[in-house]
């Protein structure tokens, strides 16, 4: 292992540790399963529903700066 | 878990528009480059090794100028490699749309390409900061929208934000809503040294744009599915682990890379100076380049920046220090300060508070 590789591995570990303090945390302090999704505005309802379903987002369909590919959820509500 | 990679390919530097902020023009000094068709097979092969799924984003200049034969060879090579290695391929093309014909749309539909259109709303701003010498119509996007509709293809738009349109959040939203777009993404302009390059937005104005867009997004009853970066911010605040947009996540040099027309592997679109070259895709496998010392050097620089600048920030895991490319064009350094740190903090706080309010009201059964 070269010095640069060693440094990177070490730093990555440290940065990930910093990130882990909040990673995957719900920043609202609200338990999403307590929410009646049907009472939320459409946009938020769709996203909340999808986040609950795919809480472990590691394999989420990541994108560049656009969403030229298919959206990550099916927006079928039409109120 | 599938090993996925996003490869942004610059097919050439030529373009039929003349955007005032074009980083290709700024970084190539006007020299013309074009990716040779006979290199495509090697490109696809060397990008696919070591991955289960590769998404190619075809960029330019203007990628339509590469021509039909270019993309026919892309599809042929992908099919050939898929047969042997089972790697799955997806394709996205990011175009200004002016050269899109029915023939092109038939081709893209048949080969399952997603089409992204670059348009800087509102229309008068698009004309102002993207016009070529002959000028462009303000409303050509309507023709593009109709064509895509006829082909039953979604309209996804990338809208660059400069000082000229940063305070026009409502006009941008209404324009895209009326146009019937499927999704749009607000992309920060790179502040290049080009003489006509508009001013970059200020932190304050950018926060205003995001807040306005968030409120409109929240209140909209139906219409487009995705408005970025609002959706990524909301998802992250709700607890989604991996932010979806590269500028909020850890995709840099890990799940996303750019290839220039002459085959250089670089961290992202505008890092074209020699210090950023990580390899030659016509000679090296992409997988190997990602484990090279030069790649680790930039990862180290990014990690050092995050360690120094973001330590103690409550939003570190959903911001991750911001986009290195934007920082580079503003500071001249890969590990320079992300210029929109303040705006991100303010927007995250604002959206968090609004979401809390809305969620609480929904628990009480009252309207938001």
TrEMBL record, chain A:
The protein's name in its UniProt record: Uncharacterized protein
Highest taxon listed in the record's lineage: Bacteria
Span list, region Disordered: 56-79
UniProtKB/TrEMBL annotation, chain B:
Gene3D superfamilies attached to this UniProt entry: Aldolase class I (3.20.20.70)
GO molecular function, one term: oxidoreductase activity
SUPFAM superfamilies, per the entry: Radical SAM enzymes
Keyword Metal-binding recorded: yes
Keywords per UniProt: Iron, Iron-sulfur, Metal-binding, S-adenosyl-L-methionine
NCBIfam families linked to this entry: rSAM_more_4Fe4S (TIGR04085)
Listed name of the protein: Anaerobic sulfatase-maturating enzyme
Organism: Candidatus Wolfebacteria bacterium GW2011_GWC1_37_10
């Amino acid at each position: 292992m070269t010095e640069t590789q060693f440094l990177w591995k070490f730093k990555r570990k440290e940065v990930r540790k910093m990130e882990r303090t909040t990673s995957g945390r719900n920043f609202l302090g609200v338990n999403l399963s307590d929410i009646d999704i049907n009472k939320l505005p459409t946009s938020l309802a769709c996203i909340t529903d999808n986040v609950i379903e795919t809480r472990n987002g590691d394999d989420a369909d990541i994108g560049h700066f656009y969403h030229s590919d298919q959206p990550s959820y099916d927006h079928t509500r039409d109120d | 878990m599938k090993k996925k990679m996003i490869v942004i390919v610059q097919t050439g530097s030529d373009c039929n528009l003349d955007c005032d902020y074009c980083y290709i023009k700024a970084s190539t000094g006007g020299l013309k480059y074009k990716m040779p068709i006979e290199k495509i097979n090697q490109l696809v092969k060397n990008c696919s090794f070591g991955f289960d799924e590769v998404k190619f984003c075809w960029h330019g200049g203007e990628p339509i100028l590469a021509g039909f034969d270019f993309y026919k060879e892309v599809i042929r090579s992908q099919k050939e490699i898929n047969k042997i290695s089972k790697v799955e391929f997806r394709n996205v093309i990011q175009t200004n749309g002016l050269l899109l014909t029915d023939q092109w749309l038939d081709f893209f539909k048949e080969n399952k390409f997603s089409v992204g259109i670059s348009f800087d709303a509102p229309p008068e701003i698009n004309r102002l900061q993207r016009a070529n010498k002959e000028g462009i119509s303000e409303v050509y996007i309507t023709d593009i929208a109709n064509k895509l509709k006829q082909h039953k293809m979604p309209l996804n738009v990338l809208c660059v934000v400069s000082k000229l349109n940063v305070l026009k959040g409502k006009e941008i939203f209404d324009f895209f809503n009326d146009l019937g777009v499927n999704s749009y993404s607000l992309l920060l302009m790179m502040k290049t040294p080009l003489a006509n390059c508009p001013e970059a937005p200020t932190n304050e104005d950018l926060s205003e744009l995001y807040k306005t867009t968030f409120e409109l997004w929240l209140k909209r009853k139906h219409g487009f599915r995705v408005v970025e970066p609002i959706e990524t911010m909301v998802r992250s605040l709700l607890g989604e682990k991996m932010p979806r947009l590269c500028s909020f996540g850890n995709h840099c040099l890990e799940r996303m890379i750019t290839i220039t027309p002459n085959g250089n592997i670089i961290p992202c679109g505008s890092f074209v100076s020699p210090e950023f070259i990580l390899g030659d895709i016509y000679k090296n496998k992409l997988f190997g380049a990602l484990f090279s010392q030069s790649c680790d050097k930039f990862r180290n620089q990014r990690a050092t920046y995050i360690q120094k600048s973001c330590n103690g920030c409550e939003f570190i895991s959903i911001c991750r220090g911001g986009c290195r490319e934007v920082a580079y064009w503003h500071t001249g350094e890969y590990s320079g300060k992300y210029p929109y740190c303040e705006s991100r903090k303010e927007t995250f706080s604002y959206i968090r508070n609004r979401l809390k309010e809305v969620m609480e009201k929904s628990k009480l059964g009252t309207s938001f």
